[in-house]
Amino acid sequence: MSTDRSIVLFDLFGVIARHQRPGAQGKMAARCHTPIDAFTTAYWDCRPPYDAGRQSASEYWTAVLRRLSLSAHADTIEELRLTDIDSWSRVDDRMVAYVQSLRDVAEVALLSNIPSDHADAFLSTQPWLHRLDHVAFSGKIRAAKPDPGAFRHCVDTMRASPGDFLFVDDREENVRAARAMGMNGHVFTGRDELTAVIDGWLPTRRSTRNARGL
Fold it and tell me: Which band of pLDDT confidence, cut at 50, 70 and 90, is reported for residue 210?
């Protein structure tokens, strides 16, 4: 069922923001005096509860360091935390401009898997986020894609129906999960292809509304 709204729901990393800065994990591994392969494994294996808001930054980094058989000193944790936040801080300015331009023709929202402290950093440095119709960060809503709860949060908070959404993400499994919820979905590969998809989707939405006399 649709409420006849047009909501483009964006992922952040790999779509609007860039993936982690090259060399960042090597820098953090060097700070820990540990091989990068071992650090990378611990970094990602411990990540899900941090992304989903079930762990604080301190708890996450303590888990990573203990996995590496290292002491979890407060100064080490803070240095790693700040390096990590900086490594995920880059945005694609052309995509930011495009996303903002869509607000002339549709509602625009964001759903990102991102820890709470990373989200705070983005909110403080990226003012365009405050101009979107809704922003949902996994660390804040305590649900990370592809968990259906993450998508349900956007539907419920925006008082919409799943069919009102076009969800855009660079990960196929997240798009599949959105479609399973009843959303429209697009796997992002580039701005030009996305523009064509949205340009085709919005007139379809308008035609449906016109046919219903809305």
Answer: very low
Q: State the residue for tokens 């700070």.
A: 31
The bridge status of strand 107-112 relative to strand 7-10 is parallel
Rounded to 5°, angle at Cα 23 from 39 and 90: 115
- Report the half-sphere exposure of 126 (CA within 13 A, side-chain side): 22
CB atoms within 10 A of CB 127: 8
Mean pLDDT of 127-150: 98
Q: Residues 16, 97: contact at Cβ < 8 Å? A: no
The closest alpha carbon to 214, from 4, 1, 2, 23, belongs to 4
Report how far residue 42's alpha carbon sits from residue 34's, in angstroms, rounded to the nearest whole number: 11
Express each pLDDT in 31-45 by its tens digit. 999 999 999 999 999
Closest by Cα among 96, 133, 102, 85 to 16? 96
pLDDT at 29: 98
